[in-house]
Amino acid sequence: MATDLSRLPHAPGRLPLLGDVTSVDRHKPTQHEMALSRDLGPIFQRKLLKDRLVIVAGSDLANECANEDNWARALLGPGLSLRKVADDGLFTARTSDPAWGHARRVLTPAFTQDAMRVHHEAMLSVADDLRDSWTGSNSDLVDVTTAMTHTTLEVIARAGFSMGFGLFGDQGGSVDNARAFLDALGRTLVWASESTNDFPIIGHVREALRQRQLRSDIETVQSTVDHIIEIRTDADPVKSTDLLDLMLSTADPETGEFLDHNNVRNQILTFLVAGHETTASLLETTLFYLAQDAGLQDRLRTEAATLKAADYAYTAVAGLRDIRATLNEVLRLWPPLPGLFRVSRRDQTLGGYHVPAGRAVFVLALAAQRDPTVWGDSADDFDPFRTKPARNAFFRPWGIGPRSCIGRAFAFHEATLLIAHILNNFELSAPAPAQLNIRERGALRPEPFHVKVASLAK
Questions:
Q1: Helices 98-107 and 261-291, axial angle in degrees (round to 10)
Q2: Which residues are 342's β-sheet partners?
Q3: Class of domain 1-87+338-396
Q4: Does residue 429 come out as left (phi exceeding 0), alpha (psi in the -120 to 50 range) or beta?
Q5: Which one of 202, 232, 303, 332 is most buried, by most CB atoms within 10 A?
């Protein structure tokens, strides 16, 4: 007979009425939960006042929760908070909202092979600008966080909206106040993460105190996007083939309806947030590991040279298997989105516990993708060329089912191209031995760090 969820293991130190307040970490909640999973097992609970969060940390149980017949996506946590910013954008829309299916059908053509060939050229132009900014610098120390933020934001702007943010110098048609946008967006992402992982009572006070700044930040990011739309709608009616044109001029093939202004704004915000935040995280973490390992650099640089020899052709990127394996290992260890909320479609059993229909659980991908029962004693080690596990391992860095990331092919191609381009032009090294320190602001990203770069130009 299945056990009630109230009997799930929990962190030590639970207090009457308050619950597990002594084990709350509002700054690094999912990393703390991953640490707890090593003691509490593949499924456990966290209780704050009357709210009980069921956390699934084991690979096998996470795979069960990925079954779309029995489970569905639940909009909770930071994703729910971000509805204040992007409302019915692709990531924050509810699956039951017709606007989600409407936008998904309109935007799917933006990620076909033909479209990706066009995006590739935009990505390559940004890679060239990044190279020039590093070679033209007076210092051999590079702020990786700033560089990858600027790089990924420029890629989205050029590929998606045929304009730049001007983050690599003055460009025609650039968005005004791009850095103010980035600052406001960063504070908003921190709020989304911390507000959903805060202490009872104290968190409500903190939330009230930050409302004025939050309203200002949301206005800043939304007005920036409105400006992007205004530039396009006020321009000469020259047909474009980018993401923005699709949203403004393409009807839903099922309903014949067009996206309204607010929905276009929300989709742009979604691509700017998801498109740059998650890809920047992947690039930053990869560069951290590369700067620590000259041997890995040499191996990947040899492979990257084949792309340079092919004049950075679109079709050659898919053949960079070692670089792709390295990126996948980074995604295994540090998935930008560390977990996914899932809701039970029916009464069922999970790990010996009874889960009623409508009950949500949090699948902690950060832990499930490092499950020692699957990956062995080296589960936490960075090893791009490790032997594959003997059985099916949970690996869902791009989400699950119909709500998985629509831009995953775009992001992975972008990351592969940029890492190859960097290795073809620079040798990387760490200025001092360092530990990877990950911050949480909805997505997982390394704390700001620097690497030394030496140009390989002859």
A1: 60
A2: 73, 361
A3: alpha beta
A4: beta
A5: 332
Residue 355 region by backbone torsions, left for phi larger than 0, else alpha for psi between -120 and 50, else beta:
beta
State the average pLDDT over residues 382-398.
89
SS3 label, residue 392:
coil
CA distances from 200 to 49, 339, 366 (A): 7, 22, 25
Is there a common fold for 1-87+338-396 and 97-334+405-458? Answer: no
**DSSP-assigned letter for residue 176:** T
DSSP letters of 53-102? EEEE-SHHHHHHHT-TTTEEE---THHHHTHHHHTTSTTTS-TTSHHHHH
- DSSP string of 307-376, one letter each residue: HHHTTT-HHHHTT-HHHHHHHHHHHHHS-SS--EEEEESSSEEETTEEE-TT-EEEE-HHHHTT-HHHHG
Q: What is the mean pLDDT of residues 437-444?
A: 90
Cα 334 to its chain centre, rounded Å, is 10
Provide the residue ranges of all domains of the chain, joining segments of one domain with +.
1-87+338-396, 97-334+405-458
pLDDT exceeds cutoff 90 at 448: yes
Tokens of 248: 């403004």
Given a cut of 80, whether residue 196 has pLDDT beyond it is no
Beta strands 348-350 and 353-355 are antiparallel
Q: Which pairs count as long-range contacts for 272-275, CB under 8 Å and 24+ apart, including other chains?
A: 272/153, 272/156, 272/185, 272/225, 273/82, 273/85, 273/86, 273/91, 273/185, 273/189, 274/91, 274/405, 274/407, 275/152, 275/155, 275/156, 275/160, 275/407, 275/410, 275/411
For the CA atoms of the chain, what is the radius of gyration? Answer: 22
DSSP-assigned states of every residue in 269-314: HHHHHHHHHHHHHHHHHHHHHHHT-HHHHHHHHHHHHHHHHTTT-H
Of 286, 335, 84, 92, the residue nearest 185 (C-alpha): 84
Number of Cβ within 10 Å of residue 432's Cβ equals 6
For 112, the token pair is 């076909």
Sign, CA torsion 309/314/319/322: positive
Domain 97-334+405-458 superfamily per CATH: Cytochrome P450 (1.10.630.10)
Q: Could you tell me the two tokens for 33?
A: 């939960």
Q: What DSSP designation does 179 have?
A: H
Report the DSSP pairing between strands 443-446 and 438-441: antiparallel
Q: What's the per-residue H, E or C state across 102-168?
A: HHHHHHHHHHCHHHHHHHHHHHHHHHHHHHHHHHCCCCCEEEHHHHHHHHHHHHHHHHHHCCCCCEC
Owner of token pair 């890492």 = 419
175 pLDDT exceeds 70?
no
- pLDDT, mean over the chain: 91
More confident residue, 166 or 307: 307
296 C-beta neighbours (distance < 10 Å), count: 17
β-bridge pairing 51-56 and 360-363:
parallel
